[in-house]
Structures are given as structure tokens and as C-alpha cells.
């Protein structure tokens, strides 16, 4: 005869986490490096309009402050290093040709920060846009290599700067592909994307998959030119 103590009990599995149960990021400060460029300004505007505290950064503090005043909605402007230090989440929206130099200069200021790289390495010739392949594999992987003390993710690659800055548009109808090594970090970035009405953040893998996400922008540019639109992406069946 065996007692209940003799029967090996199967381990109780914790219920699977709801992938759409995302953290509250509304109280976090978001910095946008390259916030004086079209993409950076557009992201800063949309996030600030949604109630996020936003600081735009530039190499020149006066340019950053001018851009912030033009964006409105309580956005502040600061030199890049100050922007990085004062922010909880830092979006990198600088031109590709200045990507490495900018991040190298801000390594200490970005230590411990959640960094969201949205840079697309592209080239252009008479045939149109085409993807470049950085030595590290992608812009996001280059950022991770240059910022060993930061938590690097990748997101916001496929957004139209024109739509982001259009004050007449209330919702941005698109999904945002989010990549990173830590699910806690990608959850935060997904939640940040979801702060913008119409937008949804979708987990899309680790940073090693960032190249194809970045390079897809070349295809979207071709779509936009052919059909005279500002195309985005939607992931179906989720």
C-alpha cells in the first residue's frame, strides 16, 4: 500500500503569460537622439501627443530646443549627452552615416539605459534604395557592440515620417516589429509603441534578426514611390 506521500507529483506549470499583457511605461522619460530629423521629430511628436514625457537630443542644444518648441506638447530639447542621461528609454534616430560615431561618444551616458535603435542602413542610386550590410550584421547589432552596458533593442523602422508629423492624422495604422535579447525589454518597447493610437508593437525575435527588418525599408520605399502612398506593415493572425 502506498501513501499519498509516496506518489511523485507532477510539477505544476505556471500559466503562460499573455503576450499582450504589457507593462505601464507612461511614467518613463523618452529621449530621442536625432530628434531634429524627420523621423525623430515624428516619433517625439506622436509620443508626446500620447502623454509621454519626451526630450529630443541633438549635437547642438540650441537646435534641439528649437525643434522641441516646434513640436510642442511639452517636449524639451537638450544636447545629446544630457538627453541620454535624463531619459529612461532612448530612441536612436540618427542618420546611418553618423550612427557609430554618435553612439561611441555617448557610451557612458547610455550605460544602463534601454536603447531602441530604429536606424536603417540604406544606400541610394539611380535604381532606388537598397539595403547595406554593416560588419556587425545590422545597425542594431552595431549598437549592441558599441554599447555593452546598455540594453539594446530594435524597433520603429517602418514608420512614415510624413504620417508621424501630420497633425491632422489621429491614428497611425501600423505594427512595429520589436527585437531584442530580453523579453522584459521588448515588452517595454512594445508598450511604448502601443501608446501611439493605432500602433501595435509585435515581438519579432532577437537582434540577430534585425538586418531583414531594417532592410525591408528599401522595399517600402519602392512601394511608396510606385503607389504614391506612405505604406506601413500589419502582421496578421495575432
From TrEMBL:
Molecular function in Gene Ontology: coenzyme F420 binding; cupric reductase (NADH) activity; ferric-chelate reductase (NADPH) activity; NADP binding; oxidoreductase activity, acting on NAD(P)H
UniProt key word Oxidoreductase: yes
Gene3D superfamilies per record: NAD(P)-binding Rossmann-like Domain
Protein name in UniProt: NADPH-dependent F420 reductase
UniProt record, GO biological process: copper ion import; NADPH regeneration
Keyword terms, alphabetized: Oxidoreductase
Organism listed in the record: Streptomyces triticagri
Pfam families in the cross-refs: F420_oxidored
All copies of domain Pyrroline-5-carboxylate reductase catalytic N-terminal, residue ranges: 30-121
GO cellular component: plasma membrane
Gene name of this polypeptide: npdG
Amino acid at each position: 500500500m502506498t501513501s499519498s506521500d509516496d506518489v511523485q507529483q507532477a510539477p505544476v506549470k505556471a500559466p503562460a503569460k499573455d503576450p499582450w499583457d504589457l507593462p505601464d511605461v507612461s511614467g518613463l522619460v523618452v529621449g530621442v537622439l536625432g530628434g531634429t530629423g524627420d523621423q525623430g521629430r515624428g516619433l517625439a511628436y506622436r509620443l508626446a501627443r500620447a502623454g509621454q514625457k519626451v526630450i529630443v537630443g541633438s549635437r547642438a542644444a540650441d537646435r534641439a530646443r528649437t525643434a522641441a518648441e516646434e513640436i510642442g506638447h511639452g517636449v524639451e530639447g537638450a544636447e545629446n549627452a544630457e538627453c541620454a542621461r535624463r531619459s529612461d528609454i532612448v530612441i536612436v534616430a540618427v542618420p546611418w552615416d553618423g550612427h557609430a560615431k554618435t553612439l561611441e561618444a555617448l557610451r557612458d551616458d547610455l550605460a544602463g539605459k534601454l536603447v531602441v535603435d530604429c536606424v536603417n542602413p540604406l544606400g541610394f542610386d539611380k535604381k532606388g534604395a537598397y539595403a547595406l550590410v554593416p560588419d556587425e550584421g545590422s545597425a542594431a547589432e552595431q549598437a549592441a557592440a558599441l554599447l555593452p552596458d546598455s540594453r539594446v533593442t530594435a524597433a520603429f523602422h517602418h514608420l512614415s515620417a510624413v504620417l508621424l508629423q501630420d497633425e491632422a492624422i489621429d491614428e497611425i495604422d501600423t505594427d512595429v516589429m520589436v527585437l531584442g535579447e530580453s523579453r522584459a525589454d521588448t515588452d517595454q518597447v512594445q508598450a511604448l509603441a502601443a501608446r501611439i493610437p493605432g500602433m501595435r508593437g509585435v515581438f519579432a525575435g532577437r537582434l540577430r534578426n534585425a538586418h531583414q527588418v531594417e532592410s525591408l525599408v528599401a522595399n517600402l520605399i519602392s512601394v511608396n514611390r510606385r503607389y504614391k502612398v506612405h505604406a506601413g506593415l500589419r502582421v496578421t493572425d495575432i
